Amino acid sequence: MSVDPDTLRDELLRFVRELSESNVAVPANGALAAARALDAVERFEEAQVRAALRATLVTREADLEPFDRLFSVFWTRVTGEGSPAYADGRLSDDVRPETGVSASIGGTDPNASEVGDDRASGGSAAGAGATVTPGSNDADADATTAQYSPAGSPDEFSADAVAVRDTARVEAAVRAFTRAVADLPGRRWQQSGRGRPDTRAALRRSLSAGGAPLPLPEQSRKETAAKGIVLVDVSQSVLDTVDRGFLLQFVAALRREWRRTRVFFFDTDVREVSTAFDAPSIAAAVRELEAAQTEWGGGTRIGHALAEVRDTYPDAVDWATTAVVVSDGLERGELDELEGAMAWLSRRASRVLWLNPLAVSERYEPTARGMATALPFVDGLYGFAGPDDLERVAAELAQYGPRTELAARGGRA
């Protein structure tokens, strides 16, 4: 059976979202794992696809019933084959997600903008993100939209949208990541028993000794404790590929493990949220974000956000700072602004590590216009969608140091 790749990608993301809305315990990297499973299916037939998605998206026996109920709708959307649950182009009440979010299809969001060349940056069904527009046949119906656009429809933080899992594993992965970053040599030099010749020190010593020959001093890069700035893209395209609970756990653990680390969330604008992650738990941090009316899930203007950090918070970055950017690199703003902001960040920080949810796919190449513009200013580019990815990042940093070749991506497709 021939299936349009764009339709499959969009509907897979939509299916995963509807499972989560129906309280199915979808794994943190469920969409990406499901895309990989579909790539491995020999024949695109209903039984094989159902088995592949069930194996990657269902972790509890209690979730089998809602999975089967929603899979029939997913299959109809993808193949166009008729189904009683899909009569007249909309979901019947018995298969609608339990959260009350409109999940009917057929219309489009009048605010949606064209995706353009960013759609092709990945390769697998979930590897490129998607424009996901559950619209309605009725003009007045609500719609939930994930799009790459300068102006999205952000929502305020809510504890209902965050599920915390694998806390111990996430914290262990962050500790390994912290050790790897702290062990990286900095930009400043120190006297060392081994390293490169320190010709300036040798000249000073020789002159002070009246020109007498002296042992040649050496110097090496100074190791520093992990200090950083964390810049997190919370646009809808990122939230469609990274579990929100894992993302918040990662940020909270970095804030706790690193010293003097500031945290910024951005989509079309940027806001500092550092103090929210001083809360004793993720639930408490979410309450802090709610109280501050923090929003996420809007459009994407990476360059504008980084330029705002440069202009408004210049002291957040210095020579000892490791800049961690979490973003899919799908830019809908001005590339000149992104290039200028990244050039500043690269000059100012000790290093720039870019964690990209799309890069967990072996088919991913950093060719989307935003990622391609940022890449020359990035020291390390890594896939990032769950704890296992963070463990691989830590191991690769410890063994090889920062690099952008995307050599180790866990064998995902």
TrEMBL record:
InterPro entries: Uncharacterised_CoxE (IPR008912), vWFA_dom_sf (IPR036465). Pfam families: VWA_CoxE. SUPFAM superfamilies: vWA-like. Residues 85-156 are annotated as: Disordered. Residues 121-130 have a biased composition (Low complexity). PANTHER family: BLL5662 PROTEIN, BLL5662 PROTEIN-RELATED. This is VWA domain-containing protein.
